[in-house]
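Hi all, posting the design record for the shared folder.

TITLE: backbone redesign
STEP: 1 of 1
STRUCTURE INPUT:
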């Protein structure tokens, strides 16, 4: 047997060992995973020391993960696997709002606000009025859609990254009769993904940065439609071209308008400069 034949025999034997898997999809996944993992090891001619370093790295990723921090998802994010999966499962309908990564900072049970309410609740930053509509891809307005939003404050931290259990910079509301929505929050800021663990070490070792461009997260649900998980990004942000998790899509980059202190269109009077943005959301009907 040649060296190549010996190596391929190992792969064939492992693939064959999964042949009896009853669940067809599971069989497809584990056999394909085996082929690709083995091809990777052959491709880089993986040494024993490198195999050990890889196991050590994944062990640290596991030890860093708990119910507050998901280092495996972060690893998937910086490897682009999260965005590749989003892309593979993208809506088929042209015109639907594009998705992006979910990220680790969504929290169940955020407070509900009425249309026009303020989700900042003490999050630091320049006030920002967000308006838009929720529609189906056929153009019909979606009343009563549930819109969840969350974001980092001007120092680049989510509420859950501070001590205590204060909820700030997050909330949810329902769209009105014409699909319209509006809320106040703060202008989002760029921030680093958590980089004090093994994923941060990987970024440092490979000369990559941890920064994400300023963004506001949305999760939108309406009956009969696919759930949308996305962000809006601020046009002009210096990190749009270098998002640590590859989440930027051109259609999600919007202009934030700047306004001097004074009255906003909804009657709120601000004693500081403020910003606004419009983001119209289009959901894909479920087949
Ligand atoms: C976020 O945008 O919240 C996020 C996404 C991926 C990794 C870390 C943070
Ligand atoms: Fe985020």
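Okay, here is what came back for every position:
SEQUENCE:
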């Amino acid at each position: 047997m040649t060296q190549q034949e010996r190596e391929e025999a190992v792969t064939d034997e492992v693939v064959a060992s999964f042949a009896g898997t009853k669940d067809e999809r599971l069989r497809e996944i584990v056999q394909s995973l085996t082929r690709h993992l083995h091809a990777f090891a052959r491709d880089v001619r993986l040494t024993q020391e490198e195999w050990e370093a890889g196991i050590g790295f994944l062990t640290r990723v596991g030890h860093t993960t708990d119910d507050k921090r998901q280092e495996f998802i972060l690893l998937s994010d910086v490897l682009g696997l999260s965005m590749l999966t989003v892309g593979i499962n993208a809506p088929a309908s042209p015109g639907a709002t594009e998705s992006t990564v979910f990220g680790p900072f969504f929290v169940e049970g955020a407070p509900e606000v009425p249309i026009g309410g303020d989700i900042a609740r003490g999050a630091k930053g320049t006030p920002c009025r967000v308006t838009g509509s929720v529609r189906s891809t056929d153009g019909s307005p979606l009343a009563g859609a549930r819109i969840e939003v969350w974001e980092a404050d001007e120092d680049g931290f989510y509420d859950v990254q501070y001590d205590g259990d204060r909820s700030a910079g997050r909330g949810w509301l329902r769209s009105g009769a014409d699909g319209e929505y509006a809320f106040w929050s703060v202008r989002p800021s760029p921030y680093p993904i958590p980089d004090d663990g093994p994923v941060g070490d990987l970024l440092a070792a490979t000369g990559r940065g941890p920064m994400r461009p300023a963004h506001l997260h949305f999760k939108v649900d309406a009956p009969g439609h696919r759930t949308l998980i996305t962000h809006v990004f601020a046009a002009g942000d210096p990190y749009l071209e270098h998002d640590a998790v590859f989440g930027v899509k051109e259609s999600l980059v919007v202009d934030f308008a700047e306004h001097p202190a004074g009255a906003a269109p909804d009657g709120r009077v601000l004693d500081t400069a403020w910003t606004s943005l419009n983001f119209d959301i289009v959901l894909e009907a479920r087949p």
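COMMENT: The radius of gyration is 23 Å.
Let me know if anyone wants the other runs.
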